[in-house]
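Title: [Solved] Protein GMH1 3D structure

Original question kept below for reference.
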Amino acid sequence: MPKRLNLPYTTQDLFPQSNTSPSKSNGAPASSTRGSIISTPSSIYIPRSTLHQSKNGSSGTSGSASTGVHFENRFKTIRTMIKRLFKPTTLDFETAIWEIFHLIVNPRKMYRSHYYYRQQQQQSNPDGKTSYSRDDPSFLILVTGFLCISAVAWGLAYSPNFWDILKLIVYMVLVDFYLSGVVIATVTWLATNKLFNLEMEFSRYSVYYIEWGFCFDIHCNSFLIIWCLLYVVQFILLPIIRIRRSLIALILGNSLYFGSIAYYFVVSFYGFNSLPIISSNIVKSSSKNPARVLQLVVVAGIIPLLALTWLTTILLRIKVADRMIDYYFD
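Solution (posted by the thread starter after getting help):
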């Protein structure tokens, strides 16, 4: 059988289920993450309070200890990012290139490898909350460099003026990538913490808390396909896409835009679904079942809406590519 393609096309891919069966030894349920992005047995998430209860007979750490752990993890990640940014020898570009390649061709593999490693860290340090945000700026440096190169290429093709090219670089990097990322990350951070938090209060000290940095990383990962299709592939296919009154040009240009946006949400779905607090049986067995809601929002909501919008633009002969190019260069 040939290896599956990147995009999910089975119900098992789109709606990963966790099979549970009684244990023969002690009657406790034995969990399985079959179909989930995190598919190894060691990836099952156990809240910190549960671990403490099993070891010490207590319900968890004290409030002051939990506060210290969370602030320590948060500032440790920021300090590590800043230190590595000014020490090129500590940057891991090899891993960043590997992540970029697999985020484009096989995002599930990237998330499975990356977050399995993070969960191994959590198991080795059960008393602290593992940060799933990046602590290496190599990925952001490479993506920023790719966007700058793309901006120069587009500028030379449409507006070969130094200041115009510089403005295009600033707009594509700061507005398209970083500013939109900050807005999207903030919205998803608020929404996911409201949706996935199984406790009464929304608190950064909750075991179910999702960091803002992780939401921004999800945006950066998902933005790669937009860069690949709209900044690179579209530029290569411009002679075809810009053909006037051509049905092929219309379908090709619109498909690039709506396809890249749809894939953006699919990769984002993979990213959030890879979190152990979402893919674990503890969350799925709750009355909220946020993992199911996340799947339905992306698969049954956003993607069909994008497909309907794409069909409408084709029927009305609206060339999205031409309008976007005119917006950037007129």
